Amino acid sequence: AAFGYGIVPWEFRLGARSWAFPGLLAVVLKLGSYVGFSSGQSLVLLVKTSMALVSLVGLYLTMRLASQLAGPRAAILSGTFATFFPVSVLLSSRAYSEMVSIPLVLGCITLSQGDGKKRQLLSGALAGLAICIRYQNGLIACALLAILASERRFKEASWFAMGATSIGLLGGLLDWATWGQPFGAFR
After folding, report:
1. Model confidence band, residue 187 (pLDDT cutoffs 50, 70, 90)
2. Are 122 and 156 in contact (CB under 8 A)?
3. Lower CB density within 10 Å: C or N end of the chain?
C-alpha cells in the first residue's frame, strides 16, 4: 500500500478486514520514507516505535479511566498491571489491529463518561474508527450507547451515535474503494 509492492494477506484480498489499519500503517511508512527511513530495517523500526507509542497512549488512557472511575490509587494499580501484563510486554510494539484499537476504545470510554456535545461526538468518532480497525469493537460501542441511553442521557447518546455513524460511513466508503462494496466483511 505504501510502496506498490509486497505481499497482500488473504484478509485484505478477500475482504475479511478493512484497509483502515493497513492504510494508517502505509501513511506512517510513506511519511517515514520522506524523512529518511529508506531501508527495510529502518522502516520496521519506525513501525515498531510507532506501535510502542500507541501502546503508551493506551497505558495512559488505562490509568486516566481508572482514576476517573476510582481515584489515583486505582490509576497506579491499573497502570502497573497493564505495564507488566505479559501480553502487553510481548505485543506492545507489534503492528496488530488489537494494539491500535485499545487506545481508541479506552479514549471512547473515557470521553463517554463526561457530558457535552463535543465529547460525545469525539467519543463516537473514536468508536467508529475502532470498529473500522477491528469490527469486534462494535460490541463495546453498542454497550456504551446502551449505557448512555439507560442513564437517560439521550442527547449524549445521539451525539455519540452521530460521531460513530459518520466515521462508520467513511469506513464503508473505504471498503467500497478497496473491495468494490461497502461493509464487505459483514456479509
Report:
1. low
2. no
3. C
Q: Give the position of cell 505479559.
A: 86
Provide the grid cell at 6. 509486497
pLDDT tens-place string over residues 109-162: 999 998 899 999 999 999 999 999 999 999 999 999 999 999 999 999 999 999
Cell numbers standing for residue 11: 484478509
Of 90, 82, 97, 93, nearest to 50 (Cα)? 93
CB-CB contact of 54 with 103 (8 Å): yes
Please state, as a whole number, how many other Cβ atoms lie within 10 Å of the Cβ of residue 7: 6
Residue among 63, 65, 64, 24 nearest 47 (CA) = 24
Residue 24 CA to residue 56 CA, distance in Å, equals 18
Closest CA to 102 of 134, 72, 142, 144: 134
Residue type, 167: I
